[in-house]
Amino acid sequence: MTITQLEYIIAVDDFRHFGKAAKHCKVTQPTLSMQINKLEEAWNVRLFDRTHKPILPTKTGEWVVAQARIILREVKKMDDFVESTKGAFQGVFKIGVIPTISPYLLHRIIKPFQALYPDVKCLFEESTTDELLRKLRDEEIDVAILATPLGELGMDEEPLYYEPFIAFVHPSHRLSKDAFILNSELNPKDLLLLSEGHCFRNSVLNMCHYEEDIIHNNLSLESGSFETLIRLVKHGYGMTLLPYLAVMELNESDKKWTKPLAEPRPVREIGMIFKHGHLKTHLISALKRVVQNNVPEKLLTNEGVVLSPKRKE
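The structure corresponding to this sequence follows.
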């Protein structure tokens, strides 16, 4: 058994096709098939059912593939550890970010981080909280930037900054003349929300003390984009809530439509989460410093009430 053979069987399991797996591994299909055949002959088992389309692992194959993934992750850890002992920071650093953060944060931190670590290849991936947590558990990414606290077992969390919620209100709206908006004045019937699955939506509903099953908007919208909500408000469809950094990206004309929320102001905690005992702690710490050095200083201190990104049961 070799590391290469394990890489090949993982590729076949990922693509469920020998030709596509070979292309991914940058070898010919006969080469990949021969190496897998050698492994099957040595163990006297079949790892894949070639008669099924797409190809499926056998029961034994499922177990072998799962173990192969663990082995390759441990090998990668060994590489990372050796590099860190030499003081050399190279290779790939995989960072997950939720979509309600990435458009307003990444442009602030990519260049400063690359300046610190020019030999590190940063891969940013945008996805939902649930998917990023899965990828952290499976060690497909190194760290995630998302709304915290989450309290995940086996994970470490570090707060980065605290972002206030700000109302974005059309001039014709019933609350447009108010200097600030009380939480009790928010009504989900005229409040545009992100689609289900977004932690920002959960935080807003927690703040308003509304349950999903009693929201009956005349406008039904499934959007993961603040830009969509902003455009709808500008055309007279109610109001919405935005995070502070999203408001900073608005043009000066649109900023006139924003309203602060009353004290104690609601905020979302933005933090980093990573698997306990992760070897790339130096890079993770550096990422934290870069983030905190490139967001407004007033966001670094919590002066509000942190809203949970999880829906209350």
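The chain has three domains: 3-73, 85-161+268-306, 163-266.
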